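REQUEST FORM: STRUCTURE PREDICTION
Request ID: SP-0412
Submitted by: Lab K.M.
Chain count: 1
Length (residues): 360
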Amino acid sequence: MMRIAIVNDLAFSVEALRRVVTSNPEYTVAWTAADGQIAVEKAAADRPDLILMDLIMPRMDGAESTRHIMHRSPCAILVVTATVEGNSGLVFDAMGWGALDAVDTPRLGPRGDLQGADRLLEKIATIARLIGHESAMASTITAVRPMLPLQPLPPLVVIGASTGGPAALVTLLSGLPKPPAAAIVIVQHVDEQFAPGLASWLGQQTGQIVRTIAAGQKPLAGEILIASTNDHLRLNATRQLTYSVDPLDCSFRPSVDVFMRDAASHWPGPMIGVLLTGMGADGAKGLLAIRKAGWHTIAQDEATSIVYGMPKAAAKLNAAWEILPIEHIAGAINTVLRRLIAEQNAAIAAMAQRNPGGKP
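STATUS: Completed
RESULT:
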């Protein structure tokens, strides 16, 4: 039985949420709270499996309540608020502190029908599959460093993140040059409804230009791109970014594992894989694929992770070359990029000396 708490100051919203939760016999309402402060106290006394957290409430809003709960008695939190788009700043604040996702509050229709219930139930079901999920057993690494390509292909930095990811991404992106010296592709677990707002928010917070990805784009040097649909982001053999519903058996959409595996298979390099804070194990096997392909990999450490799930799974698989605090990851990326670019330039210069006429 999954125990779900409801935090909302409006009685009719609490009733709507209660009806949604109890419509599934495997879910039960653990408790309700009329504001964020009460929620912090109740979560400490009786930690539920999941909290449905409103944003706009008296005394303490949902983002601040999320921060306190994740510090004192961490558990899965789903933001459920009347107007997600109208409160995008608070949504991303809450996600930065550890909320997994956000969805509009279901509404009771004039005949007592629930509008928007299916969407909320989908979110709860996804989180239910993630709670308690453990990674596979550790693997040993046998990697052969590939030769750097001689064509002017930019380095690719692939970043995966989930719970607490927005705040971690702000720290990381703020430490990179503007524009960055690489093509950067981010897969953050976020619903497609919020992806454009997340890209805009990251740009405002970091001073970088962050754009959502349209199918058919190719990663280019100096660009920061973020996955923007509920399908998986893919990289094909021609290095085009596409979206696909397959594979169907991934709890998170878009999946970090799916994209990192594609990058390991189809990007000739140079490349860096980065896995940040998040619940579950998505991205661990993908990071391992990048390391096995011979490229540098980094995972966020436990002390600075809001939820030490995804990077912990990567550490168990020995998928991370480095495990670092979030504030040190940008510096590590910059150091590796300088080395990779220098090596690539040296290889191109050496080739030009051996073949000055440009003939094979």
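NOTES: The radius of gyration is 22 Å.
Reviewed by: T.R.
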